[in-house]
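Task: complex structure prediction.
Instruction: return structure tokens for all chains below.
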Amino acid sequence: MTATNTAKNGALEVKTTTCYMCACRCGIKVTVENGQVRFIQGNPDHPTNRGVICAKGSSGAMKQNSPARIFSPLLRKEGSERGAGEFEQISWDQAYDILTERLKKIRSEDPKKLAFFTGRDQMQALTSYFTKQFGSPNYAAHGGFCSVNMATGMIYSIGGSCWEFGAPDWDRAKYAVIFGVAEDHDSNPMKLGISKFKERGGKLVVVNPVRSGYGAVADEWIPVRPGTDGALIMGMLKVLLENGLFDREFLLTQTNAPQLVVLDEGGEDEGLFWQEGEFEDSDHTANYVWDTVTNSPMPFGAKGVKPKLVGEFKTPDGKRVKTAFTLLSERALADYPLDKVSKITGVPKEQIERVALEMGVIARDETITLPIEWTDAFGEHHKTVTGNPVSIFGMRGLAAHSNGFQTIRAFSTLMMVLGIVDRPGGFRHKPPFPKPIPPCPKPIDGPQYIQPNTPLPNPELGFPTKPENLMINEDGSPVRIDKAFSWEFPLTAHGMLQNVITNAHKHDPYKIDTLILFMANMAWNSSMNTSRMLEMLRDKDDNGEHRIPFIVVSDAFYSEQVAYADLVLPDTTYLERYDVLSLLDRPISEVTGLVDSIRQPVIDPPEGCEPFQETLLKLAGRLGLPGFCDDAGKAKFRDYKDFVINWTVAPDTPVGFLAGWRGKEGRDHIVGEPNPDQWEMYVKNGCFFELELEESLQYNRNINQGYLDWALDHKLIRRNDPIIMKIYSETLQRFRLAAKGVRKGRQPKTEATRRRIQKYFDPVPFWHPPLEDYRVDTEKYRIHAITQRPMPQYHAWDSQNAWLRQIIGQNFLYMNPILARKLGLAEMDWVWVESSHGKIRCQMKTTQAVQPDTVWTWNAMGKHAGAWALDPNVDEVQKAFLLNHLITEEISDGDGGFVSNSDPISGQAAWYDLRVRIWKAEEEGAWPQFTPIKPPPGMKKAPDVLRYSSSGKK
Amino acid sequence: MFCAIPPPERSEAMTKQLALVIDLNTCVGCHACGAICKSWNTSGQFGPLTDHNPYGKDVTGVWFNRIQTYEVGEYPDVEVVHFPKSCMHCVDAPCVPVCPTNATYKREEDGIVLVNYNDCIGCKYCSWACPYGCREFDHHDGVMKKCTLCVDRIYDQTLPEDERVPACVLACPARARSFGDINDPESEVSRAIRDKMGYKLMPETGANPANHYLPRRKTHVALDLDQVTVKKQKAIIVTRKSAQEGETLIEDFGIGG
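Output:
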């Protein structure tokens, strides 16, 4: 063996770009040798990951090397079954001809017959714009089946959320509690933060049924039963409130806690904030507090007013009112005694009380003061910024339940009560958050905007505040194929990807023609009830036509979903293309300021593959979509890079995909004319742009007038009004009043929706059992079953990575030995796991690190035989399994109908509500199994021995 | 193997011992160190690191760094410990004297234990001798491989200075890994070992491993009930402005998930 000259490593080309091995969007440096990846490392200058990189990011070379790569557009062979893998290779011209003809017809007849749904595509600014300009409302990304409760529950409460919307102040917090965050959301920033925090001696408490990942390094573990975090948080709130451990000043100035809620029943203002004079059903009325100086209602925030935080009062017009805080306190104190909470959650009463007191006392007594001057929205100038050094963070464990929205309302309320939102040591927003509560964009409110050959006037998604914002027909039926923004799921800000195939198959509410899927493996691990989902994709009408007539999938690799497509468009990998991580999508900002970034090609794409963005642009050109084409119908943009540089959100608003180096000279930021050299300026800066706010604009941004003015000037927000946080949600109450028949305007038409809305749209946070618990016999199906994401693999969605599969190739059903003993199971037994809905066979292992009523497994380990260029004999097929088969995609609405198995407020898929029973299996091997998918023509043969070396060394 | 790596400047005392110090207090078991090690080394001077059946049944490959996970205690008082393990570069490395061809050797200048692939006959004596199970036999090459402490990075003058560390140290997202000379009392690693109760894995083996681990260090909050007593809790005109009616703003985007 000859040694290479080490100096050569330095001579090799190193390029910066942005990782895409998961959703974290870290900056990377890629060393390329002979056109292959020599090495991928973190970019030390990048604000997201500061030079570190995870196992997935480090394994990018094996994504490039995957034999599952598709090298040509594929058309399903006439007469073959979907899922059989019988494809013929066609040219890109043929693919475009097929697509253009089909989509032109749809667009000229009924644009909503196109449904375009994407996974975590990181180009939603483009994909949503494409669909909007096409004129179909049937667009969304993956939020509905991922973590929309986290996003909406918090955005409707504090104007921001976790992950890319906000983060713990790891540099200053002294106590941190993280709820339902296993190995993900987010990845490297979370690890960097926890490491810093622990190094400083902070106490980390992890609330999760499973102790793994971040839980492993926690100073204290609270093993909560799945789906009961809401009760736990309400119990903690009870402890804090009854001990006076709340930040009174914060509540009075930054939240609606002191605002007066009308108690009298029957009026149109029942449960809404009291107003002076004629009742106006509006989002922007000035709300009132009880002023102790004048002993009368005075406008919130008015000068000289000293508001009461607690109390019941009679207004001059004779109405009974209570402060919102009073309603919260009454709820917490009356409904959540710790004995009850302990019984629900499985967490000892003493532990709930102690952790709540630790949080409360540290928040109150260890206050941080920074010498930073700022002015609040009420005109008061402050010499310092103060903060309570307790931080709280949460993610999917809270979100992926049918009670998640209200749980996250409680979680947000806990933040408000402790007074930790956007303050030092607490939980800090990342600009462009906070946004108004909720942000202004609204979905279209009816079908009248969907017209042939016409773009939609609004984005497909938005934030309703009242029934008039729902996207429904005259008869109350849903306009969207996924039933988002319907009476069944009103606040569906991320859409409901999980419903699309089920509804399209049922032709409910109507039949679509073409379904385009990108980065969503709906034919496998991204769907509930996977076996049934595959049948639905195959199902045909009596006339022999598929129930879902035409399915188009773009993917770089041969996934299960690709095998179930009619037309496959071979995508490139993240190392082969131009991309933006835009403020117009989910941003990658830091708590200190705005950040966005790009990807540049570092490897040449293989012949036959085309970046999906380029495909969309070409398609838009062929369809003559306004915005992409000039008035003569000619494509305006040369390619995606040209689009990114030159497209603006509106002709007179010079805001585009990228915020950095705008203006002809590249001197403007966020707002500025397109800059022809913008791309090169990004590359020169390591492919990212960071705008750090001056310190006076970094805290208390909900009411920081300097920040609000800056944000307005830079078109981040529409008004510079203070963003008062919502302990009490008028939005929810408006829907409730409509359901009660009290409110004028749109009202739900069916008894079932009236009941749902009245029950779940409570303006004060509360806990209710997950809907599954009402539906199934919980004595029979006593055990909770959930998934966790393995750090080396979570979200590494689009290849079966030769290195990472060596770290985990089989998932087990993990259970506490206490449970295993009860079930008479021995280590490594094969077991049947049955839900009220289905059955699987898998192999179990015991672990002490799980709540004893809960079993868990790694997510998305099982693969369909024949997919991903894996041998059908691999463990991923023969031994690994999906829980998905056990989870029903629909549940009874109680009136003989069915609704999606999702949160009744936000439409979040209720993955973690699952209840099962388990017994020993006589047979071995994972079940169910499926007929292997054939490999497509042109796919490389997987090697038996891999000796990867970019230098070509053998 | 003839090593083309330039020898480091020799200190007078000749007592340099490079090593990794791994902080179990922050290691979350993410496998970043293992994966980046594979990536660096397979294309590096000591690669390729063969993988058998990379897309088939019983996939197996050569990894210089593997992460094990242990549970300690019983529910609910259970700790989960993630434990990355690679060659310990032992001071009295048992793998060296047993090697019949002297393929395994310990560098005097920095204490790194290396294998000369040209001389290795694949007899595996070294893996029998290693008390830590840190040797990796490459069946394709028929030679024993192992962690080199990225000897082809740490002296590479063409790399930026702060990147001249083992790849695993560069990657670690929890910053749980540090690298340096444990014989220099002023080095970062020596200080960490001193200040944070650093220990050697299984000292009873007599191998005197150079790599050290830092134990869990728990934070407790001792709350005095007196601290919980209810403490007595303790407006200028602003112009309101809006964007133009109908104007498209950044607020209108980034809605989906």
